[in-house]
Amino acid sequence: MIPANFTYHKASSLKDAIALAESLGEEAKYMSGGHSLLPMMKLRFATPEHIIDISKIQGLSFIKEEGDLLKIGAMTTQTEMEYSDLLRSKYPIFGDAIKLTADPSVRNVGTLGGNIAHGDAANDQPALMLAMRATVIAEGVDGQKSIPIDEFFHGFYMTALEPTDILVEIHIPKASKHSGGAYHKVERKVGDYATAGVAVYVELDDDGVCREIGIALTNVSAVPMRVDRAEELLRGKKITDDLIGQAGVFASEDCEPTSDLRGSEAYKRSLVDTITKRMLNKALERARQ
């Protein structure tokens, strides 16, 4: 299908983009890579009157460790993340997710910020952000703000971003000595949205006790969701096979899938159980190496 008519605006700077959004009002939408917004426009699920292209704004594409944080610019593409030596060596969970995200042509222009800011529970990166306890940095008419990821997703395609806000940066706690993460999703075909997906990130102390744990799910609720009950079960303990099995059960019980063309509710709960256990084992293996 063809999108409804809209007026295209190209922003040259953050200041320019925010001023445009403020003057054009709620009928304006930001676009970076466009791989979340454009399909919705083609299906007439979204009909913005104005598109503000922010893809050429300089200084928003980077991957670096600074102090006790991993910092990733919102305009960093999935491909840049896929081939980052830093992410490959210390944060392989990103590689897990990116290899399952669409295809190279999409990853070449699709950005981390766009994937998160769209507020779609079917996108892959939101679950990683929850598992890794990220903080979203946004800039708008009132200046810069920091939003903890657990306060970011408000509902179906709804986030904490105000209409003029632009997501500019993601902050993630720097990988510790004994930390590891893993992500996997089941999909009907390559490039499809997840039938169900699970992200796990774990930090161990020197004795192998779980110091911190993040478990988050993709596309089995209206918003990307954290599995609090499973995290509480594992935190502060040495993680055994029995605990991993119980965490999988908790995840399958606490998610909120609906039956659709990708599978029944029961099938999706079963997937969540299985994937959670596998990703816990994979994240633990990486943390212990």
Automatic annotation (TrEMBL):
Pfam families per UniProt: CO_deh_flav_C, FAD_binding_5
UniProt keywords, alphabetically: FAD, Flavoprotein, Oxidoreductase
Domain of life of the native organism: Bacteria
PROSITE patterns documented for this protein: FAD_PCMH
InterPro entries linked to this entry: CO_DH_flav_C (IPR005107), CO_DH_flav_C_dom_sf (IPR036683), Diverse_Substr_Oxidored (IPR051312), FAD-bd_PCMH (IPR016166), FAD-bd_PCMH-like_sf (IPR036318), FAD-bd_PCMH_sub1 (IPR016167), FAD-bd_PCMH_sub2 (IPR016169), Mopterin_DH_FAD-bd (IPR002346)
Every FAD-binding PCMH-type domain range: 1-177
SMART domains: CO_deh_flav_C
Matches recorded under SUPFAM superfamilies: CO dehydrogenase flavoprotein C-terminal domain-like, FAD-binding/transporter-associated domain-like
Name of the protein: Xanthine dehydrogenase family protein subunit M
